[in-house]
């Protein structure tokens, strides 16, 4: 199962996955663009990748990925850039992404190549599904608690661990106000979580 951020549904990649008959569902993700099992994927066009270097947006995205998911990937799709950025600056950033943030980065030429890569990941994840992916029933109450928290958009294994360790129960975690949550999981994640909990359907 590939979970797609609903803002990506009109993308060429989503259409490509649909044409291939891929098993996917859409929901609003606060972190990343695609989730496959317990792997979070941030997809960027080459232009957006270079833009995010200039406006430094890439660093907050990297911190969010690292804080919330043990397994994370950045896919840069396409080639070319209208910005005049020195190649050494780009190489330095790529090295930082891989070494400092420990986020693998993959370059794909187009939507078809990205779709190929995602389907390979899906097959690989299917062979070794983690407890929190939702496809394997946890063996104990702690596993069930983490599984429940990880079913909330934007909550990964690391964040679930922090919440359980601090609040001691799901009830306490979900009743905590935004200020208290921000001390444990950061301001953005706390706001996203509170907004989701308080959302009316």
Helix content: 40-55%
Q: Approximately how much beta-strand content do the residues carry?
A: 5-15%
Widest β-sheet, arrangement of strands:
2-1-3-4-5-6
- The number of helical elements comes to 10
Describe this entry's structure for a reader.
- The chain is globular, with a radius of gyration of 18 Å.
- It has helices at residues 12-19, 46-54, 57-68, 87-99, 111-127, 141-150, 157-167, 170-175, 178-185, 187-198, and strands at residues 2-5, 24-27, 34-36, 39-45, 71-77, 105-108.
- The protein is built from ten helices and six strands.
- It has two domains: 2-127, 3-Layer(aba) Sandwich (Rossmann fold), CATH 3.40.50.10130; 131-198, DNA polymerase, domain 1 (Orthogonal Bundle).
- By secondary structure, the chain is α/β, with parallel strands linked by helices.
Core attributes:
53% helix, globular, alpha/beta, Rossmann fold, 6-stranded mixed β-sheet, 201 residues, 6 strands, DNA polymerase, domain 1
Topology:
Blueprint: E1 2-5, H1 12-19, E2 24-27, E3 34-36, E4 39-45, H2 46-54, H3 57-68, E5 71-77, H4 87-99, E6 105-108, H5 111-127, H6 141-150, H7 157-167, H8 170-175, H9 178-185, H10 187-198
Parallel strand pairs: 1-2, 4-5, 5-6
Antiparallel strand pairs: 1-3, 3-4
């Amino acid at each position: 199962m590939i979970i797609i951020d609903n803002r990506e549904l009109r993308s060429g990649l989503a259409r490509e996955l649909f044409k291939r008959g891929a098993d996917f569902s859409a929901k609003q993700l606060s972190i990343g663009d695609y989730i496959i099992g317990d792997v979070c994927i941030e997809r960027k066009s080459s232009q957006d990748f270079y833009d995010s270097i200039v406006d430094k947006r890439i660093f907050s995205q990297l911190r969010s990925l690292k804080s919330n998911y043990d397994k994370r990937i950045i896919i840069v799709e396409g080639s070319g850039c209208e910005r005049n950025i020195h190649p050494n600056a780009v190489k330095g950033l790529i090295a930082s992404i891989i070494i400092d943030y420990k986020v693998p980065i993959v370059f794909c030429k187009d939507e078809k190549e990205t779709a190929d890569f995602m389907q390979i990941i899906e097959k690989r994840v299917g062979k070794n599904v983690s407890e929190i992916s939702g496809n394997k029933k946890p063996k104990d109450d702690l596993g069930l608690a983490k599984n429940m928290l990880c079913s909330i958009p934007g909550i990964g294994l690391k964040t679930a661990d922090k919440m359980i360790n601090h609040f001691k129960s799901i009830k306490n975690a979900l009743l905590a106000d935004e200020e208290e949550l921000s001390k444990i999981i950061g301001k953005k994640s706390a706001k996203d979580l509170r907004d989701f909990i308080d959302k009316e359907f």
